[in-house]
Structure prediction request, 445 residues.
Amino acid sequence: MNTKPYRICLIEDDLIMGEALSDRLDLEDFECDWFKTGQDALRALGHKRYDAVISDIQLPDINGEDLFVQLKATATTLPPFVFTTGYGTVDRAVRLLKLGAHDYLTKPLDIHALLETVKSLCIQSRPAVAGENNLGVSRAMRTIESLLPRIAQNSTSVLITGESGVGKEWVARALHHHHDPADQTPFIAVNCGALTETLLEAELFGHVRGAFTGAVRDKKGVFELANGGTLFLDEIGEMSPTMQIKLLRAIQERQIVRVGGEALIPVTIRLICATHQDLKKMVEVGKFREDLYYRIHVIQLHIPPLRERKEDILWLAGRLLKTCTAGNCGARTLLRSAEKALLDYPWPGNVRELKHCLERSCILSQQNGLTAELLFDELPSTPPEQSQGAESLNEYLHACERKYIEDRLSANGGRIADTAAALGISRKNLWEKMKKLEIQNEAAQ
Prediction:
């Protein structure tokens, strides 16, 4: 597991601003090198590896944009750049983003937005687990991912909450990989709601030969199978009161007894539990043991439903299509109509429903491009009829897009980050659309 702090290159000639940013980055456990001139930064970037760069545009010796162009011409790979300036325009933002910069922030800076951006870039630039994919591109999933390395350093019990199909086991597996990047220890998952009380006890703790009809040999339970690794108990809220007592005892004493047996078997596991229910309310009404609740609720990770993190939808769809083998199909892509249909749909079944939807379309499609009709049995209702001959289709679509973006900007007070999140697109994409549609944003000037 990678425990080295992320290294930031800060290029800022303003002494007050530079000192404030440097101190804040240090407080956030970043390793920050602060340069007051572009030339000093160029030399450092030439021989030292950084996970992200925060650069002012107006520097005393070289323009920040020219510095970036020079680096691109001489370096094969660059760390992600975030530019800051007190003289922001849409034109310059679009130009920098097209050159390859990640983001562009105007002063006075929103320090929380800057830190959020930098943390996300560092995770992408140097993942804490080699080869591990991100959990998502939304702020919520990036926040969860940023917490996993710190949680993995301890053997604390973790409770993952969220609606059914939202990806709780996916997060649990990611946490396990942070514990053990080499995957040398087991990850064992059990759905507590899929088994009766008797079967669940034998599944958890194992049984000895003759313990019950059909027990023809000794069998290890998942506690033993997960020994030294991670045990994931999904839908723990479905567990009966009797099983809750037995589970609590096993967790507290770190040893179990097989069904029908007498020998105490010591176990060492990392426990991750998950549920779609509100366990705190269940405790209040007496349906879940309070002592067990606090035992498994040391750290809670809540995964929002897919409809509340729309920016993850197309990202997830792209990942799922790459791994989809349904219908022995080749590479599949989403047509624009399909992308819009995915973004408009509320996804009550969350990621699980999205996966099944894509598998269905891969089976039914005879072409590489997937259409909206293949994704859903019933498409969203079409927009109201417009006056004939008033404008071309492209003009009408551009006008609708312009109006929608302007409304979103207005609703979010002109804040680019919040508007991009509401639209389910990246900041770079939003800047480009604003340029194309000639949208002026007073807050970005």
In short: The domain at 139-302 is CATH 3.40.50.300 (Rossmann fold). The chain has a mean pLDDT of 83. The radius of gyration is 26 Å. The longest strand covers residues 270-275.
